[in-house]
Every structure is written in structure tokens, then in C-alpha cells.
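Why this split exists: single-chain examples teach little about how molecules sit against one another. For that reason, every record in the complexes split bundles all components of an assembly together and asks for one structure covering all of them. Below is a record exactly as it appears in the raw files.
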Amino acid sequence: MISLPKLTMIATSMSCLLLLSDLSYAQAPKEVTGHAQETIVVKGVVQDSKDLSPLSGAVIQQQGSSLKTAANDKGAFEIRVPAKSKLIVSMVGYSTIVVNAAPDVVIKLETHASSMEDVVVIGYGSQKKELLTGSVANMKFKEADKEMPSTMLANVLAGQMAGVNVSTPTGLPGQAPTLTIRTVTTFNAAGQPVLYVIDGKIMGATDFNNLSPNDIDNITVLKDAASTATYGSRGAGGVVLVTTKTGVAGKARINYSFNTGTDKRAKNVPLTSAVQAGELYQRINPTSDPAGWGWTQSDIDYFKNINNGWGYDQLGAVWRDPSTTSHNLSASGGTDKLRYYVGGSYVKQNGFLNNLKYDKYNVRANITTNLTKNLEIFAGLSLNNDLTYSTTNTSVGDPNGIYTKLLVWQPDQPVWTNTGKPIDYGWIANVGAETRGDGGYINSNYLKPVINLRGTYKVPFVKGLSAIANYSKSYTDNRTKTFQKQYTMYVMQKQGLHIISTNDTGIVSTKTSSQVSQSYIQEDAGWGEDRQLNLQLNYERAFGQHHVKGWLVYENFVQSGLGMSAGINGFPVYTTDQWWAASTSNAQSYVSNNTKYSDTTIGRKSWVGQFFYDYAGKYLASFTYRYDGSMRFAPDQRWGFFPSGSVGWVISKESFFKVNWIDMLKVRASAGLVGNDAVPSYYWQETYVPGKSAYFGTNPSTNAGVTYGSIPNKNLTWEKSLNKNIGVDLNFLRHFNATAEYWHTHTYDILGLRTTLVPPTFSPTLPAYNYGVVNAQGVDVNLGYANRAGKVNFHTNITASYGAAKYELRDVNATYDWQTFNGRSTTYIAGYKVAGMLRTQDDLDQFTKANPNYNFNGNKPALGQLVYADLAGAGNVKTPDGKIDSYDGTVLRKNNNPVVLGLNLGAEWKGFTIEATFNGMVRQWKSFNDLSGGVEWNRVWNQWYSNSWSTSSPNAWLPKRYSANDGTKDVNNSGSNFWYANASFVRLKFLNLAYSLPSQYVQKIGVQSIRFYFSGANLFVISKFNKKYYDPEMSGGTAFPIMKSVNFGASITL
Amino acid sequence: MKKSIYKLSRFLAVAGTLALVVPACKKGLDFTNTNAINPANVWNDPNMIKAFLNDIYGGSMPGFAFDGNNSDEGINGPKTLGNYQRGIITADVNYVNLSYTYIDKTNYFLDQLSAVSPKVLDPSLKNQYTGEAKFWRAWTYWNMVSALGGVPLILHTQNPLDTTSLKVPRNKTSECITQIMKDLDSAAMLLPAVYPSNTDFGRITKIAAMGLKGKILMWYASPLFNPSNDQSRWQNAYNATKAAVDSAANAGYMLNPNYRNIWYVRNKEMIMVNQFYWSDHPMNFAPIRPLPFTQGSTGSNQPILSLLTAYPKRDGSPMQFDKAQLSNPAYNAQFLTDFYTNRDDRFYATIYCGGTVYPTPDLIVGQTGKTTYWLAFKWDAANNKYTNIFGSVYPGGAQGSEITGFLDRKALDTAQTLNTVSSAQLNGGVAFAVPMRFAELLMNYGECANELGKSSEALDVLHQIRKRANILPGASNNYGITAASQADIRTAYINEKQVEFAFENQRLPDLRRWKRYDILNSQGARHGLLLVINPGAPLPAPTDNIMNPSVRTNFSATYVDNLDGDPTFYFNLDLNHWFYPLNPAQISLEPNNLPQNNEWGGSFDPLQ
């Protein structure tokens, strides 16, 4: 008797053998002859349809015959077949296609949506996708991904992988989105940072975002502990692994691409015009003038003629549509002995202000050589240089602040005279003038070279054993030059408070700006360097059907930095942005510590082991550990052990499995322990720190002070997450693939303040302790479909994820019941509950009669006010006491966990391709309470003008608007359910339309491909919140908005 | 098959051994913390010991508060009358925090200091530091006790590991007073009345300790703490305040002959001083400077009618003001003349009047020389309101949101210029904050004397105070003080203190101490006195000055009833809550040991 599994085994190995032998004898196609029909010699090349890389090993078979051949390492093949026959072209990981035999063909294969044969990078090595048992998402970079109008790499990941959440950043140059993997399961102030690993080197989020998308081959995201335990004490936030491109042996491929595009700003919340602002000011303050900004009717009438009543648009006066242009040049190729990829890119971004630019340069050279049969050397060199040119920020803050200020600022303040001179509108500066550089600049130069050297040695006398030594080093040079100067403003004739002449003839005098007390020049310098050494032993071998694979790694990481700031005030003769021109008086110069780069050294050491086992690719198991040491902790708390394990079962490989429509079915489960060491260094040491100073003496001098630091916590350690993950992978009906995962994470030893441990009479700063517990669970679902209809190839992929975290143990001083954390979701929302609005005198009379003692924190009810549900009394007694105070706050929403959705669509037809990515969040609430604020002497939300309560509009939606100076405003503006709305949205994150010229034409001019494309980002958002207020991903209604970007580009490959 | 399993197990054995053996190397992670001071270098180094005390000074010594808006001294702008002043009060908002940061620092300092060997620190310095630290401990406790009544007394470094020992209940107010007195007596004993070295100027002296003791005992005898008017408390207060004045006088302290210079020149009136000076320790006066001479924050402490008329005339008689008679041109003209030209020194040192030159090196925009700052008003009939004439006198000039026409100029750094981005980049000269001065010691003593019926002592103090203000003694040599009965002298003290200590953060605390919020409530809204240009009169020239009689003829004084501009804004302070509530968020941390004050629904009686 032969058992079923054995049979399957035999069958599998037989088929493998057959396949190999088939290929080997097909090496001599010339032997095949046919006399009956005319034969032709087909010479062709097989390429990846996306990046046109040669597909070495692709099998070309004559339809209806066993005649076949394989493409060589240049993707080229030659086969002699009868004329008019058809060729079947197939390759692992690609969709099989049928082409007509012709003397000269270029065959392009589409990657198959369910390419389980892919090899995925998983940390210190790689694994076949079909053998994976952990939660790993992978994204191979497509042509379209490089064409996204964004300078920040993380944007490309939005909506691509379930459980990988990417926020939409504001459109300011250099703004990076926030990337989180699954749900954050800690309340530690530093959060759960995502770990970025670029070609094996552990780096930061900035390094990740600064990568050029052109240089990237693929990105892997490790989500569960079984996968991230390789990164031990830093794995809890998930890991993003980036693999950059390496050369492929073959003819040199040279690619140049260019794109250029502009951004349009998406909407802010609608604001009041000058006329509305004036009328609203008078409506709010009929008898007083809190800002000395009272409007007369003649003022208002005057502004009816300025921009049709809008008044001076201070933002419009300096705004320009941001634009981005980029150039990318790369070359790759090589021989068996030496392969190379060399790429360079230049991105130029012009920000919304004249004096706001961002240039980014990236250079990368990845060289792989085989020095001997057994020794491979990889050298990766990369250089990133970011140049930021920014306006000064002394008057109203950084460009974000400038944007908001100019957007809302007094509509009666003109920026320029009719010949473009900056007007003194009665302030220390003219912000418009600063945006064009009148006040100087802040320029920074960030330079980061990375050197990555790796040698791989196949130990010749032990089959399957290899050793790797990897040394990488990077330097960070960060310099910021600030030059600020005073400039001339023009004092204009004025009528009353509001009417300022803009005509040059109305210049009364000039005034020197005083946004700085004197012109100065300053340089902030920071220097960092780090090095990582890895020594690794790999082993991979099959013992019959037993297949084992594993590696042991030693890793050592050291990072150090230093920095300082220096400057000189005043320019004695000539004011220019040069040090030689600045004052030579010692009293005018200063030097200080640059807190971003203090003189420190930190380090880590780790031992990693990772082992995989599978039996016939059917029963899978893995075990991973990391033994991690971090200097952040006291010597006896320094080392931690992080184990994980996982198992998988490919049911579809079982012989009893007879479901025709299922191509592959795998179930897997994992469990593991990971840490989060996002903790400041030396919390465990007693210290003294600089304190406040005293000033003594009849010739007074600074008597510097010292004081104690926070109480040390010698037991400080990392927080730990015990994560379990169950997943099912399913390929079905040939074209579908699906993955569903459920995860549960128990995070404990969370670092937090034990607020309730000591009474308020104990004042020293208590250290954070490892004590908190958060439990979280969630699901990630992914469904893909790829097919071909006629000549159209299309694919789609839907991702959805949901995660919910709950506080199990978190200290809080719960003065009021709604402040308690334990047992509540980490996203619960609390506030007052609105019971109604007092719209008429009748309402008010009835209300005061029914609630004689009612007051809101001491305020008696009045017309136009919201009234709140009286839920509790002092001391959290659950009986109403007639008064509304903090005891009456309540949980308005038990949790605010959104479902995060992603949708990718793509289609290809005769060289035309379209790729679109949508992402969205549903089931989410957001507060728009920021709109309740704003001062009425600036522009405010226009609903305050048209839709707020007054005696003449008692049925308006909003309550009465109080002056920003009037404490009574809190009655209406305090956090309540009135100020929350559903903020679900779906955004077209990315759209790419491209056309590649037919290869038969372009090849005639010696070009492999020419591609033109249009791409757009954030083109629209569908959201009620957006319609009524502002984009739900914006931080506030007057914040710098999300940009709609469009660009056009072309790419040529030689 | 068997062979492969054998090979597999051999592999596993090797791998397992490697995995277990290899991680033995655990060294090499001992880096040095370069960002902090090593504790081993602190308590055996006299400079570091001194530096620890410097931090206590730096964190405890008051500066300028600019809080005239809290009482009837000034206004920060329309609708800025606080909820507390409007009687809208709740424990959630009006609480005062227990703040033990500097209690613990002084406790820790005293504990560590006591163990320092004489080889490290000279015993005389050790005594001095002990005295200084005890003063600050008393000072910090008093800040809490004066607001809340008794608080938990903690006098030594606490052990955070023994959490039960940290739970200390509120002590009785009387226990706190006793402990504070103990610290102050000890400080007075250990500290010199005047430091021999000039470099120590500004340190706490014996006189400061005695002065604080007198002040606290006076508070403890006042109606807030002493509703039954226990005379023995007044006797204690009298003894302490008199001792403070006598010791001070013996050590050379006195009223500085020039009132204005108290804040500009080091003088013998300073009992406590916080020296602000360019450029190491600059004070940014932006909040009280007018908009054309500042940026951002502006308009704080604009004097209102009650303060403007509180200053007597130069002969000591009250500055009479009858709003009903303002429509009489002769009355109005005479009033203005008296108002501007016939006041005591303190008026001119404390109040800047629109229509005079503003004390700053800056020039008004478009002007090439020093000109008057025309902060005055005209009636805009079309819009039924008074508008600032500044923009008309100086075309293109930015007129501020100042609404009263008067500004706080006490201690104002007159060398400071417009270029005040932040205190670090400000240009300026000197301005000394004087949290305790000889005049206060004197007036405390005089007030206590009056309460014990020693009216001649009380009146003598008032005369000294007024004499220094250059008020004329008059025929009866009483400097305009006509009060004779105890009650009248008490009122005279209330008035004199308002004037002498305007904008020195004394008015609201004093009114609370006397339980006399009715003085504010009886005023109703905050009233203004506007300088308004007469209908048809020409605009003043930039160099005209309101001190000039011919310029003044173009102006009239005008009464504004409600500067907040809203009938719901008026003084309506609650007369049933005199102590502040403890922060509910602190009570919930320690509900059993920190009962709320009884006025706020709790069980703690601050009068015990």
C-alpha cells in the first residue's frame, strides 16, 4: 500500500523531473524539421510588460506540440516552427499568453495577480511567497508607481496593502505622510514607530521618504510578530523593508524619464468676505469694540468695491501654484561576473510662495560582482541631498503658519501698492513681503551618503552553507543658514481704521520692519554618523522532502552625532547674507548647543536566528528569535529575548483536496513577542540638569542654576507586544486571489506615567514605568482579480482593514467618570451632550422655569446658547444637580476606529494603461470645533455670518457667535457632540494614464520603449465632511490644504 | 528517507548549538551620558551647591505680572473683564493648584546641605544658604496658604518608593502659619540685613524674612482669616511689622526719595528685587506698550477711571470727579487742568497720559524727531462712537486698540525699542521688579497700628508715604489726610494702598484680605475717562502736548460708563467665596487627604 501523501509526493517529484528533462532536451530546436509545411525561424525576446526586463527562463512552446525552448538570460530565444503556428509563452509568476509565430517578436508577459512563486524579502533573507507563514505584504514597484506626483515615497504605499495606513499630508514641500502598520497598540508618548530597513540597513522614516521611487525594486511590509520578531525590541510598530534595484545581466538598459506638473489647492473652509467680516464684527459687537477694529457703514461700503466685497486677498496676492519637475536617469545591465544599476534623479519643487523651494537629488550605484565562483561582492552607494529654500518665519511661523495667517488675515490690509511696494498695514512686518524674500531666508542643506558593502561566500565544502558579511555606514550632514533682515515698508494714507490707500501717490512715509530687532545671520550645523555591521551564516538544503533553511545573524549598530548653532547680530556697513559683512563685535555674536544634534553616542547589539522548515511545500513551520541589547536600559535590563513561531498548511496540496475551483488554499497561524524601545536614553540614571538662573549683584550677572533631573527608573525596559495572527490565502477561479487575516495583540509593560501613584503634593518628576496594557485586534482583507478580456488586460485589488485597541491598564486621574481609560477604546470620544438650543424668548423662559438653577460653569442660560444634558452632579453622582460642569461630560462615542479601504484598478490595452488607486476611511467621526474659534477681526467661517443664531434668525443652525474676547463663548464652543460629524471619505489618491509606443516602431529607431503618461494625485475626495466643512484629512479648516497634483511625463528606454 | 531525517537532525543539532552558544558576547554597550551632570559632582562642589540654590531663586522670585485687569486698576480691552470678576465662578475653573515643586526643591536642598562637610562649604555660607532656602520655603507655602488655607506640610525630602509616606493630609491653617513663622524666624536669624559683598545684591536678607513675617501675620489678623477680629492676632502682626520696619531702618533701608526711580535705580527701598536688564535678563514690556511701539500683545493694564481719580491732587486733597458736571465747560476745563497738572509724583510715575511724549527711543512713523503720542479721541457722530485720533494726527500711523487713552508706565523700560521679537532679542535698559519694598513694610505696620487703635502711628506712616510722593504737607501738616477715626483711617489705608501699589499685584489680594469685594461691585461696570477733542476744534499738531494749557482748551474730559461695551460686563464678584477652591483634579488623586474648602462644598475649614 502506498499512502496518499506519498503518492502525491511521488507525483510532484516526477513532474519536476519531467519538467527539467523536457527543458533539457528542448535545447536543440534545430534538430526538429518538418517537410510537409514551410517552417520559419522565430527570433524573439520575452520581457516583463512593466519594466521591460528580460525574462530569462520563460518557456516558449508550439501550441499542439511538445516543441519548446527557453529564453536565455537576455530574454532572447530562437525556435523553428511551422508558419502560422501559435506559440504558448509561459513563465512562473506571469500570465501565460499565446502569440502568432512571426520572424521577429517581442513578447511581454504580465505578472500574474496570484504569483505565489514570488520570492519575498523578509528581513535577513528571503522566502518563497508560497512558503510564508507570517503576515507579510509585498509590493513590486510598477512603472506607474514611479510616476506619482509626490516627492515622498510613503505616498506610493497608500491603499496598496491591507493594514498599511498612509495619511495624506498637506501639500507643503517636504511634508511626509504618516505611515502606520495596523493599529497602534500603545499609549506611550513616542508611539510605536515603524522600523525602516533599506537594503538590510536599519534607517529612519526620513531616509525612507527620501528614496527615489525609480531606484526601488520592491517593498515588503512585515505585519505580525512572527515576521517582525527578527527586529526584536523594535519590531512592535511593524517593519518596512525596501530593496533597491540591482542590475540584471544582459545588454545595458538606459532609461531617462522626465515629468512636470502643478498643484492646485483643495478647498479650505469657506470664509467671510471683507463686507461679511465687517458686518459680522458689528453684529457680534454692537456696543463695544474689543479689537479696536470697529467698522463703520462707510468702511463696509468702500469694501463693496474691493474685489466685489471680498476685500484684499492677502494669500492670493502672493500665492503661486506649486509645481514639481523631475528628471531620472538610470542604467543597468552587466555580465555574469558584474552587474550594475546606476541611477540618478533630480526633483525640483516650487512651493506656494516665491521664497519656498525644495530640491532633491538622489544618486545610487548598486554593483554586484562575482569575484570567484563562490564569492559575490555587493557595493551599494547612495547619496541623498535635499535643499530647502524657505521664507523666514519670525513673524507668523513656518510656511504652514504663514498660509493660515494670510488666508484669514484682515481683509482690509492690502499687501502691495499698485507698483508692488510692501505696504505698512500697521504691523511689525508685511508678511507678503517676507514671502518673496524681503526679510531674508532660511535655507537648509541635508546631505546623506550611505555606503553598503556586502560579501557573500558560498562555503564550498558544506552544501547549502553560505556566509555573509555586511558593513554599512552613513553620514548625515545637516546645515541650516538663516539670514533675516529688516526691510522698508511704505506707510500709506489712511481714512479711518480700514481704508488704506494702495496708490503710490498715497505714500506718506516709510517704516523699517521690526520682525527682527536687527538683521542677523545664523548657521545651525548638525553632523551624524552611524555604522552597522552584520555577520550572517545561511543554510538551505533539502533532505528529501524535508526542506530546511535558516540563518544566524550578529548585528552591531552605533550612532553618534554632534552639532551647534552660531550667529552674529548686525551688519555695520553693508547688509548681505555673508559672514564677512556681519558685525565683528564679540557682543554681537552667539553660539549655542544645537539640541537636534547633541554630542551623544548610542548603540545596540543583537543576535538573530531564523529557521524555516517545510515538508514538500505542504507543511510549513518557522521559528525566529532575536536576542537584543540596547544601551537605553540599565546594564541588568539591557538584554531581551524575542521569540516567535509560525505554522502553515497548504491544504490544496493534499491529495484529498478536490475542489476544482480552488487553485491554492493555505492556512497559517503565528505567534510571537516583539518590543518597542522608543524610550529616551538614560532614564535609568540619576542626573542633575541645568535649571533656572538668578540675577545678583550691583553689577548684575547671571547666576546659573542646576537642579535634579527626574527620578530614575532602574527597571526601565521596552514594552512588549504578544501578537497572534491567523491567515488564509486563497487563489481561486484562476484569476482571483484573496487573503484574510485576523490578529490579536496584547501589549504590556507600556511605558507611561503612574499619575495616580503619588499625591499632588509630591512634585519631583516621576519616571515613566513599564506597566500599561493595551489589547487590540483587527482584520486585514485583500482580494485581487486579474484577467484578460479580448485584448484588454486588467487587474484589480481591494484591501480593507479594521483594528480596535482597548486600554486594559492605564493610569489616569479620573476626576470625572468620562476620563477613565481602563476598559475603554483608545479612540473613545468624550464631551458634553447637547440637549438643544435656546432659540426664542419663549424657549428661554420655559427652560429657566423648568431648570431654575441651570448654569454652564457659572454662566446663566441666554438666548442663542446651546444647552446641555445634565447627567451628573459633583463627585460624579449620577443624579442631575441642575448645573452643567465637567461632571456632565460623557462618552459620546465608544470608539472611533475607521475601516481603512484601498482599491487599485488597472487595465492595459494596446500599449495604453490606466492605473488608479483609491483609498478611504469609513465609520469615522471628526471634530470641526476649530471652526467655532477664530477671532472676528479676521476672516472666519462664513457660516457664522449666514447661519448663526440671532434674534432675527432664531432658526439658524449655529448658536450665537460671541466675541473671541468674551469668556461666554465657551458655553457654545466647548467640546460637545454638536461639533462632531461623520468624516468618512473616499479619495482618488492616484491616477496614472500612460501610452507606450508600439515596440515594433520604436525599435526601428533603436529604442526599446517610449512611454508618455499623465498622472494625478488626490484628484478628488468624496466626503460629506469635505462638502460641508473641509477635507477630513486636514488638521483644520484653515490649515494648509491637501493638494491636487497633476503631472505629465515621458520615459524612454534605450 | 531515514538518511534525510538523520541529516536533518544533524543540521538542527548544529544550528541549535550555534544559536545558543553564539550570543554569549554581551559587552560593549556601556556608553556615557554626555547630556547631564553627573550626580557625583554636585554636593561636594561649593559652586554646584550654590547653583542649586540659584535655581530656587530663579523659579520663585516674582517678576512683573501685568494683571491690572483683575481689579479696578486697568483694562486689557473690551469684554476682558474676567468671569471671576463677573461672578461666574466654578471650582472647575477658578481653582488654585497645590504646587510643591519649590517646596520639594528647598526640602531637598536643606536636607542635602545639612550633610555637606565644612571642608566643602564654609559654615557661614552654609548658614546663609539655609536661611535663604527657608525663606523660599516659607514664601512658597504662603502663596498656597493665602489662597487656599491650610495645605499639607512637608518639610523633608520624600521617598517615592514608600508611597504610603507620601500621603499627607491638609494641615490646619494655624499649623501652616506656625511652620511658616518658624522658617522665617530661622531665616531672619541666619541672614544678614545687608550683604557685605556687592555681588550678593538681590539675595534674600534678614529684612525680607522679617517683612514677610509681618505681612503674613497681618493677613492672618485680617478679616479673611480673622472674621471674629481676634485682637491678639493684630497685636502679633503689629509686633512683627514694627520689628521689620525698625530693623530695616536700622540697616539703612528707607523710602527712596524719588518714587519713579524705585524701579530704575538700585536703592534702599528694595527689600526684594528681581533685576531685569539688557541683555542677560531682559523683560519684554510689549503687553503694556501701545501698538505703534510694540507688536503682537498690547493694551494690557490701561488705567480706568477708578485708578485715574484715586491719585490725590498735589495738596493731598482727593481728585474730585463729578460726571454730572462734565457738560459744564468751566468745570471740565478746571478738571482737566487739575487732572493733568496737579497730581502727586506717583500719578506721573505710574500712568502715561495720551497727549504726552511716550517714553521710548522709537519715533512715531513718518516723524523725524520726538513727538507727542496722541492717544486721544473724537466723537464720530455718524457711527455713534469715539474714535482714536492717532491716525488723523499721523497719517498712515497704526492706531492701536487702546481704549482708555492711558497706559501703565510704572517700571516701564524706557530704553526698550520697538524691536521686541522675543525677550531674547529685545533691546533695552533696566527695569527692576520689586516684589517687596520698604513702603509696604511701613504700610503694613501702619495698618496694624490702626487696628490696635494707635492712630497716630498709623497716620504718621501715611504722612511719610505721601511726603515721599511730594504731596504738600499743608497748613495742618497732614498731607491731605483728614481721617481721624479708626474706620476712616482704615479707608484711608485702602485708598492709599491702591495708589501707592498700583499695578504691583496688591489690589485684588488686599480687597480679598479685607473681604471688601463690595468696593468693586459698587462701581458697576468699568468706567473710562476719555480725552475727547472738542467739536470743531483743530486736530493737535504732532508736537502739541496736553500739558500745555492752550492745547488743552481744544479737549474735554468725557465719561464712558462701560468700557467693556456690553451691559453683561460689570463687577459682580461673589461675596460668599473668599478662599479659592482646590483643583478638583488634585482632589481626585487624594480625596481622603485633600478635602475641598467648605465654601466650595467640602469639609475643610480654612479658618481653623
